[in-house]
Amino acid sequence: MEILADLIVSAMRVYSMIIFVYILLSWFPNARESSFGQAIGRVVEPYIDMFRQFIPNIGMIDLSPLVAIIVMRVAANGVEHLFYTFLL
């Protein structure tokens, strides 16, 4: 059971790092249009789009990826706490 908990939490943390890389790609011209950027976009955009529905842009700044990372990290910590408190 501990291996499953570690696997889920690690996957959530890796996904939040992928979102961070996606944010960094926006700083470089045409980086999101590259094949690497498009592959990351296909993985990350469905999750980020959930937050774009509720979080308005501030000027040209999109804060939804940042909120998505925060929510993912809080969820990973919650899953870790649940596994180690109640199941192990």
From TrEMBL:
It comes from the Bacteria. The chain crosses the membrane at residues 7-28, 54-76. It holds the Pfam family CCB3_YggT. This is YggT family protein. It comes from Alkalicoccobacillus porphyridii. Belongs to the YggT family. One of its GO terms (cellular component) is membrane. The lineage of its organism: Bacteria, Bacillati, Bacillota, Bacilli, Bacillales. Keywords: Membrane, Transmembrane, Transmembrane helix.
